[in-house]
Amino acid sequence: MKPSVIFAGTPDFAAAALNAIVAAGFEVPLVLTQPDRPSGRGLKLQSSAVKKAALTHGLNVIQPTTLKTAEAQAILQEQNADVMVVAAYGLILPQAVLEIPKYGCLNIHASLLPRWRGAAPIQRAIEAGDKETGVCIMQMDAGLDTGAIISRHTYTIGADDTAATVHDALMHLGATAIVADLRQIERLQAIPQSETGVTYAQKLTKAEAQIDWCQPATEIVRKIRAFNPVPGAWTIWQDKPLKIWQANITAHSGAAGTVLHSNEHELIIACGTGAISIQEIQKAGSKAMSVASFQSGHTLSEGSRLDSAEISA
């Protein structure tokens, strides 16, 4: 049996799953995604990645602002779908919606639940120094990522992984996993989550992306990786934000925030414990660039300090 699938999602992470479901030959009578949003310099309305993918496949798309209305729920009922797949959708599914499909609603979540329930599981896993993360296919309930687990798929976080690279890896892992589970939907067994080891991945803020140079180098490098590409770890230089996109731990020490070595090949900054060697950097109003390119046109001299004074978000 190939179940008919209502799909709900918004960004690239979800679009990859939708593409995989369609490629596997499942019927998708309806796709739900967030309303078009203004974006770019001209603030023109932009469709979500899922909407673009759905239209490419000739699928029916709706963009409700809520699923709590009788009208929205009636549309879902009319599809007579076997299951609803949800991935980074962005709207709350009320209990009435969860009960509409024959096999309920399956969520593709980018963590090894119950660790990192919530909005930013990829970034929080890297920031915390987790050695592995992954994807769970979950039977949705009314709680926040509290549903029973259908399948778990692990990914080892590499020393150079950023939120961007882990996102892409889990995006493809999730797409493969949901297709495999849909193919055996009549035989799936959901195992309740453990209440031990629950953590919450709070939404990222620009303020917390500011580097505290008094922290150990290990924590600072994890933050840089976790906040790449959004919102970008930053500090203050010449009273303006300076973003750091890539850095490694190095065997130096000095007063926290002090430039220890600065030449055309390296830029080493002391941390609370240890130091970091910056590879990619971006000053305000410029593009990201290598340290060599940055050093050819700017002066960040040895002995100077990077300021941690706050700027407006």
UniProtKB/TrEMBL annotation:
One Gene Ontology term, aspect cellular component: cytosol
EC number(s) given by UniProt: 2.1.2.9
Source organism superkingdom: Bacteria
Reactions mediated catalytically: L-methionyl-tRNA(fMet) + (6R)-10-formyltetrahydrofolate = N-formyl-L-methionyl-tRNA(fMet) + (6S)-5,6,7,8-tetrahydrofolate + H(+)
Keywords of the record: Protein biosynthesis, Transferase
Start and end residues of each Formyl transferase C-terminal domain: 203-298
Domain Formyl transferase N-terminal span(s) in chain numbering: 5-179
Positions in coiled-coil regions: none
Record flagged with keyword S-adenosyl-L-methionine: no
InterPro entries: Fmt, Formyl_trans_C, Formyl_transf_N, Formyl_transf_N_sf, Formyl_transferase-like_C_sf, GART_AS, Met-tRNA-FMT_C, Met-tRNA-FMT_N
Gene Ontology MF term list: methionyl-tRNA formyltransferase activity
Residues given in the record as (6S)-5,6,7,8-tetrahydrofolate binding sites: 111-114
Family: Belongs to the Fmt family.
NCBIfam families (alphabetical): fmt
Known function: Attaches a formyl group to the free amino group of methionyl-tRNA(fMet). The formyl group appears to play a dual role in the initiator identity of N-formylmethionyl-tRNA by promoting its recognition by IF2 and preventing the misappropriation of this tRNA by the elongation apparatus.
Protein known as: Methionyl-tRNA formyltransferase
